[in-house]
Specification:
This is ABC-type polar-amino-acid transporter. This protein has 246 residues and is α/β, with parallel strands linked by helices. The chain has a domain at 4-91 and 161-244: Rossmann fold, CATH 3.40.50. 39% of the residues lie in helices and 26% in strands. The chain has nine helices and ten strands. It has helices at 44-51, 73-82, 98-108, 114-127, 143-155, 173-188, 200-206, 224-229, 234-244, and strands at residues 4-15, 18-29, 33-37, 59-64, 67-68, 83-86, 161-165, 192-196, 209-214, 217-222. The strands form two sheets. It has a six-stranded mixed sheet with strand order 6-7-8-3-9-10, with helices on both faces. It has a four-stranded antiparallel sheet with strand order 2-1-4-5, covered by helices on one side. The longest helix is centred in the last third of the chain and has 16 residues, at 173-188. The radius of gyration is 18 Å and the shape is globular. Bound molecules: adenosine-5'-diphosphate and magnesium ion. The site of magnesium ion (MG) has 4 residues, from helix 1.
Length: 246
């Protein structure tokens, strides 16, 4: 593996009595693409949210590029800006144009000049195929277009790593591929990515590794090829049998 960019050591998290992350150890190398898969409720979203400190952890450490996640304040804002996150729902600002959605973070957090931020914003919109829509509002775009804008908005902050939490699961089927294609392109360009998804096509095309979680634990991990053809744990076998018969 290349130099590790994201390192989780012995991470634990409870919600009340519920132990949602159990002794999670995980290293993601620079440029590595990791797909996280597992049954609903297994802790995948909590894992993503912990990496970007939207959730606190009770024990263990999480480092990004050698730096421990700060508790709060400016350092935290800076670190969050290094970690791009794309959720299932698009979370665009409804009352701002597409271009304004993209440039807001770079201007406010990265202190870029407006014209610089807009130039780069247009390049990113071009890259995700929605440059034509720059002056429209989110509600005027399809779900697939909005999700591509959400990706461009994250990229505008020049993140070191991108987290995706089921980015296509709220989309109509015909829009899934346009979003996955953008993600495959990002992976090919060397972006470090942690992707929670059940899209096996994406995992096979773009992932270096699949991590299978159940009940707050990493149960097994392997290359996509090995994992999908020869899952070793009964839980992974059971899970794959269920998603494959859909
Ligand atoms: N804010 C919260 N408060 C209480 N329980 C939560 C909270 N967020 C998640 N959970 C619970 O933690 C477990 C893991 O959730 P989550 O990380 O969302 O799993 P996944 O993304 O794999 O479906 C689930 O049982 C869920 O109900
Ligand atoms: Mg989830």
């Amino acid at each position: 593996m290349t130099e590790p960019l994201v390192v989780l050591k012995d991470v634990n998290k409870h919600f009340g009595d519920l132990h949602v992350l159990k002794d999670i150890d995980m290293e993601i190398g620079k440029g590595e693409v990791v797909v996280v898969i597992g049954p609903s409720g297994s802790g995948k979203s909590t894992l993503c949210r912990a990496i970007n400190r939207l959730e606190t952890i009770e024990s263990g450490t999480i480092t990004i590029d050698g730096k421990t996640l700060p508790e709060e304040g400016k350092a935290l804002a800076q670190l969050r800006a290094d970690v791009g996150m794309v959720f299932q729902s698009f979370n665009l600002f409804a009352h701002k144009t597409i271009l304004d959605n993209i440039t807001l973070g770079p201007i406010k957090v990265r202190k870029q000049k407006k014209d610089e931020a807009e130039k780069r914003g247009m390049e990113l919109l071009e890259r995700v195929g929605v440059a034509q829509q720059a002056q429209k509002y989110p509600a005027q775009l399809s779900g697939g277009q909005q999700q591509r804008v959400a990706i461009a908005r994250s990229l505008a902050m020049n993140p070191k790593v991108m987290l995706f939490d089921e980015p296509t699961s709220a989309l109509d089927p015909e829009m899934i591929n346009e979003v996955l294609d953008v993600m495959v392109g990002l992976a090919r360009d060397g972006m470090t990515m942690i992707v929670v998804t059940h899209e096996m096509g994406f995992a096979r095309k773009a992932a270096n590794r699949v991590v299978f979680m159940a009940d707050g634990q990493i149960v097994e991990q392997n290359t996509p090829e090995e994992f999908f053809t020869n899952p070793t744990s009964a839980r992974a076998q059971d899970f794959l049998a269920k998603i494959l018969t859909h």
